[in-house]
Amino acid sequence: MSGETAAPERLGLLDRVGRTLGLGALIVGGFFPLVWMLLTSLKTEAELQKFPVQYLPGALDAANYVRVFSEQPFARFFFNSMTVSLLSTLLCIAVAVPAAYALARLQVWGRGALLTAVVAFSMFPVVSLLVPLFRLFRSVDLLNSYPALILPYAALSLPVAILTLVAFFSAIPRDLEAAAMIDGTSRLGALWRVVLPLSAPGMVTAALLVFVNSWNEFLLALSFNTKLDMRTVSVGVTLYQGEFAFPWPLIAAAVVIATIPLVALIAVFQRRFVAGLTAGGVKA
Amino acid sequence: MTQKNIAAPLPRRRRPRHGEASEGRLAFWLLLPAALLLCGVLLFPMLTTFRDSFYFNKLTEPFNGQPFVGVKNYVQMFGDPRFGTALRNTLFFAVLTVGGSFLVGIPMALAAHTPSRVRGLARVALLLPWAMPPVMTGLIFAWLFNAQYGVFNDILVRLGVIQEPLRWLSTPGLAVLAMVVTIVWKTSSFVALIVLGGLQGIPRDLTEAAEVDGATRAQSFFRIILPLLAPSLAVAFIFRSISAVQVFDIPYTFIQQAPAQGLLETLGVYIYRTSIEFLDFGYAATLSVALFAVSLAVTAVYVRFVRDGAST
User: Fold this and answer.
1) InterPro entries from the entry (chain A) (predicted)?
2) pTM over cut 0.80
3) Crossing angle for the helix pair A200-216 and A147-171, nearest 10 degrees?
4) Which residues of B47-68 are buried (b: 16+ CB within 10 A; e: fewer)?
């Protein structure tokens, strides 16, 4: 189809320019804020206060990164976030897989209503749960503990995890399970040996969704775990500011450290994740 | 097996065949943990909030006890100018940021969809804003918009768009603009992800056929691609709307740095302050019910959409 007349070629050039501009804008737009934080984190206070703005840091100096860990127990925040996020992901997926399997595969009474209920749960405003959950956790002495965050995080991500997994389980041909069951395995055996391995992209997608949600959550972490030792990174990065002072290079360094796990996960899983989200999200 | 049974559920009085009863029981046990977690951690507290909205419960006035006050909190709410402002701000931001995220998100998806050597990088760029913690997004943009050292001012001055650095966060109109830009940056990638999914479901033949027939790029986009994207756009629209009315983290971060406070206070922030700063749990619960009602209004559309989708 190409190159019969001049017109398609000119369009081709225009297309190329358009594509380059679009991709350029996307990449610059997506990376710029984080890159700017990285540059800021390497500057000294003096370099920061220059006008007009000095774009590149003078000498590569990790002083701000050292201060992040010495001025607040940031390593501890990081450990807390990692623990809470990993455990809530584990809990959420462990609960979501059987539920999604039942909804996708078994004859469940009121399946449509159940799915609607699952969706409705994703509409609850977190801020409305703040006071009742606070009182509930206080009464059972769970404040300033990991479960105080793990339980709500797992529950808050559960609807989206279930919906994603239902979409994936439904896409697997029933014949495969039937064949496995004829070969003598039970229903749960078929789930474990056939359905789960085949829906690996769905599991990765769901797990990443839960992890990112949990890592990023701020409101409950701010309110439930108020002991310095129990803070998570999303709250931790806000602790460097004084009442009137914002030590920006320090805050920038903390933000950069706090986003490293997310950037790493995205870089590693981007392909699978986008494929998984698009396969699951639209159908659900 | 029973899975071949596409007829309506069997009538109860007939004695169930072997597989059915055990399947129902199995489903029950498989669904139970999820139900417990959702009911215990989300539904029960939500019901508590609803009940609390009819009680007086202010921690700073323990001498008043916690009496039942009927709809008094609701009457207070409708006469509360701060609630009116917060509700207006919330809806105003929701309209601007949902619209903005589509205007930016759809081209993002189109750019990421085109095959190229930098596709992986483009996908990371598309996912980054989505994955970035909202609080940190708020901090980063507050820094970018900083009046003295902010890079946005610097770029605008260098380009000659403005003569003097703008005081973004302390000028009411500009503070609103800055927050809209921040939220749009953060949320466009969600729209882009869903749209990207829709795009990947559209067979290439369709647009190629249209091009053979002499359709321009714009024509095939508006006449073919956009209509086929409608289901994805609807899903993105409803999820975006719900998260937009509940927005908390970014306004919360901005307010800490912006003297233009009243303009940035959303319903979520007002509820947070009422409960945590004023310790007025009863009234906060009432405000929460209002926020839930706003979410529900958006949800109703979505539920209908899901019902229609589930029946196919």
Assistant:
1) BP-dep_ABC_trans_perm (IPR050901), MetI-like (IPR000515), MetI-like_sf (IPR035906)
2) yes
3) 150
4) ebbbebbbbbbbeeeeeeeeee
